[in-house]
Design goal:
The protein has about 150 residues and is mostly helical. The protein contains seven helices and no strands.
Length: about 150
């Protein structure tokens, strides 16, 4: 399946993470699904209040609704467009400075500019090494089949 490279660049951050599947991405699937679930639930809060004695999970319905509202209001434009608050990441600006689309394409890769925790550092290395091995488009399609988190 051939995908327009511009779409890949819109959805994949320079580090290799998929912005389109992030809970904070304005154009993402999680935002759309959260909004659809809120719409389907409608005015469920009174029902949850009545049933919480029978279905204990409904005792926390207000917190669940708060979480859905937060996800449905996602507004991040993506890392390439200046978004991406989590975690502190140099890649979202460094790729422009280096004139590359992805970290692995940089002559200085792997560098130590990112302030990733050890788990994310391993993930960053794996994503970029994988793109270098199979190509950006193949990686894009491969990772679309996996959970984002």
């Amino acid at each position: 399946m051939k995908t327009d490279y511009a779409i890949i660049l819109q959805e994949l951050a320079p580090c290799g993470l998929d912005c389109a599947r992030c809970f904070g991405y304005a154009g993402g699937e999680i935002k759309a699904l959260a909004a659809a679930l809120l719409d389907r639930l409608g005015n469920f809060e009174p029902v949850a209040s009545r049933l919480c004695g029978v279905v204990s999970a409904l005792q926390d319905y207000a917190r669940f609704q708060e979480l859905l509202n937060m996800m449905a209001a996602a507004s991040c434009p993506g890392c390439r467009a200046g978004g991406g608050r989590f975690p502190p990441c140099a890649a979202k600006t460094c790729f422009r400075e280096q004139g590359v689309d992805f970290c692995y394409q940089c002559a200085e890769y792997p560098c130590e500019r990112n302030q990733f925790d050890p788990d994310l550092l391993r993930r960053w290395r794996w994503m970029n090494d994988r793109m270098a091995k199979i190509g950006v488009e193949a990686y894009y399609h491969e990772q679309k089949k996996k959970p984002r988190y």
